[in-house]
């Protein structure tokens, strides 16, 4: 594992991508540890003063008026965590759990949560061992924080209750897993249980997972779109910079430039430079307008999620300079909810326009290519049902894209009367990203087949590289064969971003 120093409050998306992907563990600068110490000391002084402070020596939610005496403060925090372990459903993916733990470290290390360094060190120890708490995916409404999933994280990592997945894939009772790692359960101090389960770290980790997937789908969809333009002998005139400068939308200008670079010096384009075709269908010529708008919104969502990843989102917040505990609502995940809904719409559009290009490729009346991209069609069905699969996924994405953020439902005896629904909104966006990756994968396969029909004419050098990468795994279709594994292989390439020139990937270029 490689150490990666992070700065709480200023951790970049570049670092978050590395931590999401694995192989790195975060380290904290010295001033972060000082801030953590100061915040914990403030809690001690507040208790010594005899003041009543929510979550420190009171009950929670509607029970906030109940004062808890000093002999029961540890029980208060343990009971809080255990009672909130109400998650259901399949466990969250390990990459999401890892990122959530990182985000919890970032938030606690801002020095506004009143926890001891011991808690942060425990999370770091688990990350270093690649041991992930098993967290049920369902049960959070994204307000008062991601209470249920963060309670499962806390119970496993601190109390030794629940389950932990070890590096080798062994799933053990948490107490046994901690013992295997040479660790013991932690007795939570005042406010520590509340600080651990309050916050938006699960919804934000899910949102970042969806964002990072969407970035790779977006980048590969541009390659797929360019391949389809060449396979269909489309025009590159719609990508002329003068058109896009006339509108001024920054994403549109950048996508048009990318399309020009992907199609530059194509033999196929040169072969029909003087044809009398006037205009291509929208899914070909409006790619800068559609994908450019998606790019602008992707980058907006990235800014929202990067900010949230660095945020302090528990309650109350402890200000050590004045020994104040201020109650607010930073745990409300509305920014994540709205960003996740935007990401869902973006992914719907990427898949939708990709499927429309695919539909042209398989239609001999529009493409000028063999029906369903296979010779001896009739005997062979070629890409007929691959297009149907893409259409089914586009339809499913439309259903999944219903905005989660507009669907508030009151909880906790109406104390928490407006909630964000960010957690399942972000989680379903991951499903959207997987569907979109499959649609783009099918288009890549179809466009590569279309390019084959133009041999010996060659596409541009970037598209030759993409075509060669596909053909290294998937031979051309000269007759029908078992199709699903081909889609799976190319979908994996879409999800890895391996078909995208490195200097063009969103994660690698600065704006």
From TrEMBL:
Signal peptide: none
Alphabetized CDD domains for the sequence: PAL-HAL
Predominant cellular place of this UniProt entry's protein: cytoplasm
TM segment ranges: none
Keyword Cell membrane: no
Post-translational modification: Contains an active site 4-methylidene-imidazol-5-one (MIO), which is formed autocatalytically by cyclization and dehydration of residues Ala-Ser-Gly.
Enzyme class: lyase
Record keywords: Cytoplasm, Histidine metabolism, Lyase
Pathway where this protein functions: Amino-acid degradation; L-histidine degradation into L-glutamate; N-formimidoyl-L-glutamate from L-histidine: step 1/3
Protein name in the entry: Histidine ammonia-lyase
């Amino acid at each position: 594992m490689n150490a990666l120093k992070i700065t709480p409050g200023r951790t970049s998306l570049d670092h978050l991508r590395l931590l999401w992907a694995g192989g790195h563990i975060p380290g904290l600068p010295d001033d972060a540890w000082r801030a953590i110490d100061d915040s914990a000391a403030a809690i001690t002084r507040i208790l010594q003063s005899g003041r009543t402070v929510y979550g420190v020596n009171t009950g929670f939610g509607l029970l906030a008026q109940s004062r808890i005496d000093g002999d029961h403060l540890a029980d208060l925090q343990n009971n809080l965590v255990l009672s909130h372990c109400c998650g259901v459903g399949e466990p969250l993916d390990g990459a999401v759990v890892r990122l959530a733990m990182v985000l919890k470290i970032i938030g606690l290390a801002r020095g506004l949560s009143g926890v001891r360094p011991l808690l942060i060190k425990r999370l770091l120890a688990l990350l270093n061992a690649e041991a992930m708490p098993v967290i049920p995916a369902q049960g959070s409404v994204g307000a008062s924080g991601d209470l249920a999933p963060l309670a499962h994280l806390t119970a496993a990592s601190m109390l030794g209750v629940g389950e932990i997945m070890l590096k080798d894939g062994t799933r053990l009772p948490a107490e046994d897993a901690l013992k295997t790692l040479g660790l013991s359960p932690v007795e939570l101090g005042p406010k520590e249980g509340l600080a651990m389960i309050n916050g938006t770290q699960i919804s934000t980790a899910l949102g970042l997972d969806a964002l990072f997937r969407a970035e790779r789908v977006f980048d590969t969809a541009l390659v797929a779109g360019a391949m389809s333009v060449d396979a269909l002998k489309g025009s590159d005139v719609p990508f002329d910079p003068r058109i896009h400068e006339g509108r001024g939308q920054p994403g549109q200008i950048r996508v048009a430039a990318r399309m020009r670079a992907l199609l530059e010096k194509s033999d196929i384009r040169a072969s029909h430079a003087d044809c009398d075709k006037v205009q291509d269908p929208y899914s070909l010529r409006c790619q800068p307008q559609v994908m450019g708008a998606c790019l602008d919104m992707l980058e907006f969502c990235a800014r929202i999620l990067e900010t949230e990843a660095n945020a302090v989102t528990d309650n109350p917040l402890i200000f050590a300079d004045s020994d104040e505990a201020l109650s607010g609502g930073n745990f409300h995940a509305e920014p994540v909810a709205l960003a996740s809904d935007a990401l869902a719409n973006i992914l719907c559009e990427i898949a939708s326009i990709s499927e429309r290009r695919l539909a042209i490729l398989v239609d001999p009346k529009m493409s000028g290519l063999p029906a369903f991209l296979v010779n001896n069609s009739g005997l062979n069905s070629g890409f007929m049902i691959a297009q149907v699969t893409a259409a089914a996924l586009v339809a499913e994405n439309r259903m999944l894209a219903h905005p989660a953020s507009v669907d508030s439902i009151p909880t906790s005896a109406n104390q928490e009367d407006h909630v964000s629904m960010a957690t399942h909104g972000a989680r379903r966006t991951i499903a959207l990203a997987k569907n979109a990756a499959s649609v783009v994968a099918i288009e890549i396969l179809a466009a590569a087949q279309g390019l084959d029909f133009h041999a010996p004419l060659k596409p541009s050098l970037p598209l030759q590289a993409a075509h060669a990468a596909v053909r290294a795994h998937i031979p051309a279709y000269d007759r029908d064969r078992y199709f699903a594994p081909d889609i799976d292989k190319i979908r994996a390439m879409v999800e890895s971003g391996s078909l995208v020139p490195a200097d063009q990937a969103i994660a690698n270029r600065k704006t």
